[in-house]
Design a protein that fits this description.
Strand order of the largest sheet: 5-4-3-8-9
Structural class: alpha/beta
Number of helices: 5
Strand content: 15-25%
Distance between the termini: 28 Å
Number of strands: 9
Length: 162
C-alpha cells in the first residue's frame, strides 16, 4: 500500500501503470511480474543530461539481462518523440510515454514536478514481486550513477537474480 503521503517507499508495491512504449505497444506494471525491473523516470527526451544518462544505461543492458531485469525508461514525452529518439540512438529497451494523462505514472510514484510539467530524475528498482527494492535519485542536472544500478540489482534477493 502507498503511504498516506502518496509517495511509495522501499518495500511498498510499485504503483500500477499502463503506458505506451515508443512503438505504441501497451506496457502494464502487471507485465513486469515475476522478474525484477528497473523503472527510470527522467525529464525529457533529447536533452543533454537525459541523453547521456540513458546512453549509459543502454550500455548496461547486458548486466540488466544477466540479472534477469527489464529496463524501462519513463518521461512525459509523446510516444512519437520517444520513437524518434530511440531510433536515433539505436536503443531497443522500452521508452514509456507518460504523456496523457500528463504525468499520471510520475505522480503515482511521487516524482512529478508540477511547476515544470515533467518527471523528476528518480529510478525504482522493483523486485520480482513488484515491490520497490531501491530508489535512486539525483538532481535535475545530475545523472544517476550507472554503478548504483548494478549495486541495486546485486542487492536483490537471490530468487530475483538469474
Amino acid at each position: 500500500m502507498i503511504p498516506a503521503a502518496g509517495i511509495p517507499g522501499i518495500g511498498d508495491p510499485a504503483p500500477a501503470f499502463e503506458l505506451s512504449n515508443q512503438y505504441g505497444e501497451t506496457v502494464r506494471s502487471a507485465d513486469l511480474a515475476g522478474a525484477p525491473a528497473v523503472l527510470v523516470f527522467y525529464p525529457f527526451a533529447f536533452s543533454r543530461v537525459c541523453s547521456g544518462e540513458l546512453e549509459a544505461l543502454a550500455g548496461l543492458e547486458p548486466e540488466f539481462s544477466a540479472a534477469g531485469a527489464r529496463l524501462l525508461a519513463v518521461s512525459c514525452d509523446a510516444k512519437y518523440s520517444l520513437r524518434a529518439w530511440a531510433s536515433e540512438k539505436g536503443w531497443e529497451f522500452d521508452l514509456l510515454s507518460d504523456f496523457w494523462p500528463h504525468g499520471a505514472a510520475a505522480r503515482a510514484f511521487g516524482v512529478f514536478e508540477e511547476s515544470r510539467g515533467m518527471a523528476g530524475r528518480s529510478s525504482f528498482i522493483l523486485d520480482s514481486d513488484g515491490r520497490i527494492a531501491q530508489i535512486l535519485r539525483s538532481g535535475q542536472d545530475e545523472p544517476r550513477r550507472a554503478a548504483d544500478y548494478l549495486q541495486a540489482l546485486s542487492a536483490l534477493p537471490a530468487r530475483d537474480r538469474n
